[in-house]
Amino acid sequence: MIVRNKWLTVLGLTGLLLSHFYRVEAQQKTASPEVYVDDKGVMRWGSTRKEVQGFGVNYTVPFAHAYRTAQRLNVDLEKAIDDDVYHFARLGFDTYRVHVYDSEVSDTLGNLLDNAHLKTFDYALKKMKERGMKFILTPIAYWGNGWPEPDEKTPGFSSKYGKDASLTNPDAIKAQEMYLFQFLNHVNPYTGVAYKDDPDIIAFEVSNEPHHGEAPAQVTAFINRMVQSMRKTGCRKPIFYNISHKVHLADAYFDADIQGGTFQWYPTGLGAGRELGGNLLPNVDAYTIPFANNPRFRKSAKIVYEFDAADVGRSYIYPAMARSFRTAGIQVATHFAYDPTYMAYANTEFGTHYMNLAYAPQKALSLKIASEVFHTVPMYKDYGSYPRNASFDGFQVSYEKDLAEMVTEKKFIYTNHTTHAPTSAAKLEQVAGWGNSPLVNYAGTGAYFLNKLENGVWRLEVMPDAVWVRDPFEKASLKKSGCRNQLAQMAHPHPIARSGRRVQRGAAQRWEHDTGRTSQRSDVYRIAGHLFAGKKGDAYTTKRNGSLAEPDHKRVCGPGYYAENNLCPAPTPGGACCRTATDHFGDGGYRRSTRSRRTARNRTGLPHGNLSNAVPPRLPVRGCHTRRPDPRRNTHLYHFRSGKRSVPYLSR
Question: Which of 465, 519, 521, 533 has the highest count of CB atoms within 10 angstroms of its CB?
Fold first, then answer.
């Protein structure tokens, strides 16, 4: 009896201890959500109480036209995602948003289908997490999967009911409740974490651009049913709803159990079918929200789920848009949309948009600067109206020069030739650009990146040349190239540090991306020497077999949130290193087809280089043949397929 009582006592104490442990754990989970919205409508990190700031892109490789195109071109989707996510890191994107094509990953009852689309999506999230990115997920798109082709027959509920009926039909509403519940509970097989619990998912947006036509009370009831199905999973993340469509229903949105609203901005319209010209900076002077003064709106967090200066091929405008977003109190903005590199040559996915680092390098650098603006400019700070607001807090935009730039003590980024320079080049830790600057002389037409690894050691990456051979916003086809990446066809020198001699090439490293048509390559170098602060006559050399790892974010840029500061290791050294001085080519301009060698001019008409002066150094790479380029070679541009001379598209 005594022994039995002792065991009962022990079991009772164990039960109390376990009960206390689970209660404490539950209290800890309740006390500190990853993200919350305060009473002033500001999203904050639960652990630090700091404001959430995010900037990035939409990207739809796992779904619809992009997915089908990869299959047609026999592209390895995982490798393609790896390459594009590396671009995201290079451009400083820290946020990813996508409207999931529910038509491809659900059935008519709302069951989530564990298929190839969902697997590819999970893989993309995993790779972005490795780069330090955060997510805004929109589980319901309501779209068919066809654009720009006819819709396929897909199994989803939105395929059965369509967008309008999905908002009112009782069976469609039940299907959406089922789908949202299962979607949030889905466990990503690559991470082992359910979406509802993933700390890198900042928030959910219920659906993409619902077009409500019902009475306000019905709209509120619909939204609350969607939110309740998501809350039943135990999810405590902020839930957003699109309040920029049907703005007359604003009060119905504010009556619903949501923590914020989502917005879009296309200030130049959509679908022009050609590149738009003219100074568009006045169009983005301010981002105006009709109900901004509504007290209940002021308590809601604000996200821009899509934006673009559609049909604009120039590079000056994105930082101005980012500035206006911050003035309006926007915390997260994601550009629509990043073109997968394997199909960016044709721009078939969303023809009114065009964004890719390899094929639209100046636009991509502009978006990189916009990300810096988003993480620098305080919420609600007003910079006045154009043209006074064209220069602000170390940033400058110029329509006349087609230039956006960031000039600070540690960072120097520019989208076109510039005469501005940092006050102290010796303190620089990062340079990214296109064309010439007081610090770098470069005759190519691709982007380049310089990151300081440590004192006297820099990492240089040079992207392939990009030449637009037609208007990329006209009617597109996979059989018709809008932009070509030049690969070993013309000669030009590599970037030159203007305070010393040309950077000499040593054992180089490259990454390759097989698009199904051609291979995209960027060169990576480790440069020893005080690149911008050396004495006249200093020689800067690449270190043979030196470390070519991506820059460490803590040493290079200090603590930061966004992805460029968290680049992962570059490809393993070795393999084919035989690269001659002609591997990156082009005379640095949009050259007209002619038998005479003219001085190339860029889109602003400024002198940009001359093939007759291109004399890169001889490169003694072991086991490789080197040669000096013949400046008379390849003075014309040719179509890949026909071999005929072509006239590159000249942006107006």
Answer: 465
554 neighbors 515 (Cβ within 8 angstroms) = no
Residues 6+ apart with CB under 8 A from 300: 37, 41, 254, 258, 259, 260, 261
Helix (H) or strand (E) holding 126: helix 116-130
- Alpha-carbon span 578 to 583, nearest angstrom: 10
The angle subtended at Cα 434 by Cα 429 and Cα 440, nearest 5°, is: 55
Q: Which one, of 524, 510, 484, lies nearest residue 638 by Cα?
A: 484
pTM equals 0.79
Contact call for residues 331 and 375 (beta carbons, < 8 A)? no
Q: What is the pLDDT of residues 337-366, one digit of tens each?
A: 999 999 999 999 999 999 999 999 999 999
Distances (CA, A) of 533 to 197, 210, 451, 525, 565: 48, 56, 15, 19, 23
pLDDT at residue 476, as a whole number: 84
pLDDT at 20 over 50: no
Q: What percent of the chain has pLDDT over 90?
A: 65
Cα 392 to its chain centre, rounded Å, is 23
Rounded to whole angstroms, how far apart are CA atoms 322 and 207? 24
CATH code that applies to domain 47-374:
3.20.20.80
Distance CA 162, CA 427 (A): 57
Predicted local distance difference test score (pLDDT) of residue 170 = 98
Looking at per-residue pLDDT, the higher value among 470 and 605 belongs to: 470
